[in-house]
Design a protein that fits this description.
Strand content: 5-15%
Order of helices and strands: HHHHEE
Radius of gyration: 25 Å
Helix content: 55-70%
Largest sheet: 2 strands, antiparallel
Number of strands: 2
Number of helices: 4
Structural class: alpha+beta
Length: about 150
């Protein structure tokens, strides 16, 4: 029963992870405005810096836990503190490294889009014009210039 529960939980987590991958894809960023891209860039820099801080803090906890555990006897109460520091350091380092790498790649994507937006692009798209006074709907054309 536990196996079925854990397998279904893993499949559910995998499904949500796969659905979230398109949100920060290159195509998603290309559709965003320059203001949105700059906001994304600021958010991603903050989260990348948080990942760096977590990685360094976790590494310090990890090394401190190993040193504390090796200094005391196995049955000493202080050795348990070393084990706790070791495990928490490993977890914090893992989370920080994943955050650091993920947001660094997102920053690269956003910078690539921002650097490529200097060229001129013209987009024509059909639209519908609605006149509320007469309740008329007329076909129209939208011209979008990016330079």
């Amino acid at each position: 029963m536990k196996l079925i529960f854990y397998l279904s939980l893993f499949c559910l987590l995998f499904e949500f992870t796969c659905q979230g991958q398109n949100k920060y894809s290159l195509e998603y960023f290309q559709e965003s405005s320059p203001e949105q891209l700059k906001n994304y860039l600021m958010q991603f820099h903050k989260k990348k810096n948080a990942g760096i801080i977590l990685t360094l803090t976790g590494s310090a906890l990890f090394i401190g836990g190993v040193a504390t555990f090796n200094h005391y006897d196995l049955f000493d109460d202080r050795a348990g503190v070393g084990v706790g520091m070791f495990i928490s350091g490993f977890i914090v380092t893992s989370i920080g490294a994943v955050m650091w790498g993920t947001y660094a790649s997102r920053i690269k994507k956003v910078r690539k889009i921002l650097n490529n937006q200097n060229e001129l692009s013209i987009t024509l798209a059909p639209c519908i014009l609605n006149n509320n006074g007469y309740q008329d709907i007329h076909p129209g054309l939208t011209l979008k210039l990016n330079f």
